[in-house]
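Regression test attached.
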Amino acid sequence: MATSAKKKQPKRQKHAPQRTCVVCREKKDKRDLLRIVNNADDGVMIDLTGKKNGRGAYVCSSATCWDKVKQTNILDSALKAQVGPDTKMNLINRFQELQKEMGITG
Ligand SMILES: [Zn+2]
C-alpha cells in the first residue's frame, strides 16, 4: 500500500507501452490493461482494439479495480462522462467474459 515513494524510473528502451490504471494508478504494460472508451457512436465500452475514437481510460485486469469501477465514480471522472449503473454492469460483465476468454487473471 505505502509504496508511493518518488522513484525515478530508469529509461529503458522497451517496446511495451505503459499506461496508468485509472483506479489503482499503477503503471502497467498496455496489454495488462483494458481500454474503456467513450465513443460518440457506441457509448462507453471496452475497446479491445485500442483504436476507437473518444476519451479513453485504462483499467487493469485486477478484479479489485473493477469492483471499484462498479462502486465508485472513478470512471465518470476519467471519461468525463456520466456512466450509468447499467453501463458499468455491462462493462463489468464484458470484463468477466474477457477474463474467461483470454485467461486474464487478476
Ligand atoms: Zn488497477
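Expected vs. actual: identical. The chain has one domain: 18-102.
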